[in-house]
Structures are given as structure tokens and as C-alpha cells.
Amino acid sequence: MFISKTIKTSSALLFLLPFCALGTGQGVDPASDPKQQPYSGTDVSGYKLTWSDEFSGDKVDEKRWHYRLDCKHWSQQKAENNVVVGGVYRILLRKETLPCPTNHWLQPGQKEGDEPAREVQYTGGGIISNDFLQYGYYETRMKVPSGAGWHSSFWMMVDLTKDKDPSDLEFNPLDNPELKSHLELDPFENDSIDLHHYQTDAHQWKPKPGTEDPGRTQNKVGTKQIYFKDGTSLDQFHVIGFEFTEMKVRYFFDGKLVSEADFAADKYKHNAVNVWFTAIASYLRKTKAVDDSKLPDEVQVDYVRFFEK
User: Fold this and answer.
1) DSSP run (H or E) holding 151
2) How many Å separate Cα 236 from the centre of its chain?
3) Has residue 114 got a pLDDT over 60?
4) Rg for the chain (alpha carbons), in Å?
5) CA-based nearest residue to 280, from 40, 116, 54, 77
6) Which of 80, 118, 222, 247 could, after both became Cys, cross-link 261 (CB 3.0–4.6 A)?
7) Helix, strand, or coil (residue 123)
8) Within a domain: residue 27?
9) What is the pTM of this model?
10) What's the total number of domains in the chain?
11) How do residues 60-96 score in pLDDT, each as one tens digit?
């Protein structure tokens, strides 16, 4: 469901009535076609475009997005690293040293037992939608950087770091105590050390005590490693699709179903989510260092669209 920040409804209603659309259409990019359908060949039907960004302007639309600004793993995320040029949203990836006093991760060149450097040598970025979405089909066309060292993702979760606007307290999902348990949906996570692989996932964080997956503090479904042996490379544009319903999560790549999992609302506590695009420098997938020879580089996003039944 599309939930505009201009809509006033109770947070209880948000969870008690998950099948009702609380508002549609307010977020549709004027440059997009309301008759637009999901990528050709994708096995979904009955959908209508209700929210999108075609990135047709000359900068990030701050009425629609805010920025990821944390310092994590090997990079500081910066607002100025998010630009729109030539109809494409770009996350600029740079080598530059910045202080990061709270960063406890070891940096490239450090070894186990070293004192954390408290500074990072790289900057990344990301944007997070101001609007909350829920059930529907999400789609983007994007490409990742070609050099090792970057964790790039298209994903959905409530932004738990965003400052609260007092005027929004009645409906903002952040203000519902039940969101101590919340969803993370990951249709696309790539570590650029391997341009022929990405991962899908769905998490329920902080579930009711006693209902967690064994050995975890979360419930996790839909995890799949997607490998390409036909020359497909993720540093070229591809269409990533994701369907979130009351019963399932389904993952698509260039229109082809690559993964699906049961994710029923009566078992996992569903909530509305923000849409994220992010890129951070990271050790994930056993990355030892960032490939400086490929910098500066970019994550590029052609469009993002959300369709509702």
C-alpha cells in the first residue's frame, strides 16, 4: 500500500488493516506514464503504477528522498555523493579519508587485534524514500560499480534513524511500538568483488521472544545466492523486480523469477517500509581491499517504480 506523508491515520490502523490502500497516486512522478506496467515478461499481473522516480531532473528530489549518512565498515556516506545526471541517479564512490570516531570496524591494511583506525578512506552514499510503501511490486533498473570493495543494494526497511516529525506522529510507522519488530526486504545485494552474483533475503528483526529462528535474533526467509554462468555482469544495467504480498516474497531478474519464499502476514509481522538505494565500502564476501584503480566509480539507477493491485 502506498502511504503518503500527507495522510493522517492511526498507527494501529496501519497494522490492523494491512490489505487496505491508505492512499494512491500522490507519489507518481509526473514524467512517468500511469499506464506503465512491470518489465515485459515478468510473471505478475493486475498492477497499476502508483509511485515512482524516473530521475528526470537535475538533482535528487528531496521532497521524495532523504540521504543515508552513516559511517559503516570502510566508508562514510555523504549527501553530496548522491547526484542525478543524464536521467540517471548516481551514487558517487570515492577515495577520500574522513574521521569516523564511532567506527569500530578494522580498515583495509589492519589486522585482527589492531586498534580501530577511527577514520575511513572511502565515501559512499544512498537515498531513502520519504514515503512508506507496503504490498505490491517494486522494480528498478540499475548497475553496480566494476571494481572490488563496494556493497550495493536495492532494499526496503523502515528508516529507524530518521528524525521524527511531530506532525506525523499519528501515522508514522516508527511510532508504533510494534515496530520494535520490523521487516527488512532485500531484493538485491551485491558485493562488487563478484559481478556475477547477488543475494536475496527477507528478515523479521526482533520478533516476539521465543519465535526467533534457532540461534538468531531474527527470522530470515527467502535467502538465495543468485549466480550467473552465462556472462551476465552486474556492472551493466539490469532490471531487478520484487513482489511483496500478504503471503509471499518473489524476486525477479530481467523479468525472470529467480527466487520466492512463503512470508505470511499471520506468521511474520508485516509493516510498511521505506525504499533504499545504498552503496558502502565493505569487507563483505571476504573482500580484502577496495580496488582503487577503478575509482572514482558509481552505482547508477535508471528508475524505481512501485505498482499496486
Assistant:
1) strand 150-157
2) 19
3) yes
4) 19
5) 77
6) 222
7) strand
8) no
9) 0.88
10) 1
11) 999 999 999 999 999 999 999 999 999 999 999 999 9
